[in-house]
Amino acid sequence: MYRSMFPRDIFDELDTLHRQLQRAFDVEPSIRGIGRGGFPALNIGTTPQSVELYAFTPGLDPATIEVNLERGVLTVAGERKDDLASDQQQAAVHINERFAGRFRRVVNLPDDVDPNGVSAEYRDGVLHVSVKRRESVQPRRISVH
Amino acid sequence: MSDNTQLTRPNDGHDNGKDKHAARLREQTLLPPVDVIEDKNGITLFADLPGVPKDKLNLQIEADSLTIEGDVVVDAPEGMTSHHAEVRLPRYRRVFTLSRDLDGNQASAEFKHGVLKLRIPKAEHAQPRRIEVRVA
After folding, report:
1. Higher-scoring residue by pLDDT: B33, A37
2. For residue A52, is pLDDT > 60?
3. What is the CATH number of domain A36-133?
4. Can you give the CATH number for the domain in which B36 is found?
5. What ipTM score was computed for the predicted complex, to two decimals?
6. Per the structure, how many domains does chain B have?
7. Do B50 and A58 touch (CB under 8 A)?
8. pTM of the model
9. Which residues have a Cβ under 8 Å from the Cβ of B10 and sit 6 or more positions away?
10. Which of A45, A98, B5, B83 has the fewest CB atoms found within 10 Å of its own CB?
11. How many Cβ pairs within 8 Å bridge chains A and B?
């Protein structure tokens, strides 16, 4: 699990240890392991006009990032090349924490998004996807006579 | 705690130095994941710091320690409400101890798309040398 993005906290570390122990003692662990939901980290926010998604995906070639919106479901996928594999044979790997390989994260968007109003920008390793929401009727107060 | 409540802090009345140290311990930062590989000429370090623009990256190499710090800058539209935040802190920080055989003065770094690539060569005296054995 891609835990080291999160603040260093004794409880987080104990949690990771607990998870690892569980995996070690599990009689029949899932063949897919603990799940790849860790990379990239996502932050999602909304304004009345849009839904904003930030995916923390450093080290990608922007042309290879796949962003798809289909029936209200936003998918961010791609592949991160392993920097270590390309280096010389003589090297010794001391620490290997960074994620490498294919990744995919899926988000359910609210019903009022406009599929034609999607824009995506990749800056400083963060993918920012902005989805416009359809003009909705302003909430009106109904007076009771 | 509301804004009006005064909380007695354990460092009240102590000198400034202690306060700063305590404040730094309390400040939580994100730990950027790294890859470190070593070849015979030095060490290469890769660190993930997404969201940090070049001018907010701070690299410090002292005699025996390396500090990597960066502030996250994300342009959020005005009035955005956060619904789901997996990255909740605006700062990365990680410190490493460097061994004596590394030459910090010769370090070089590249920073692109939030990935830092730092190269620290081994000091001249620590480079591998083949010693010729002569037959007497």
Report:
1. B33
2. yes
3. 2.60.40.790
4. 2.60.40.790
5. 0.72
6. 1
7. yes
8. 0.73
9. B22
10. B5
11. 140
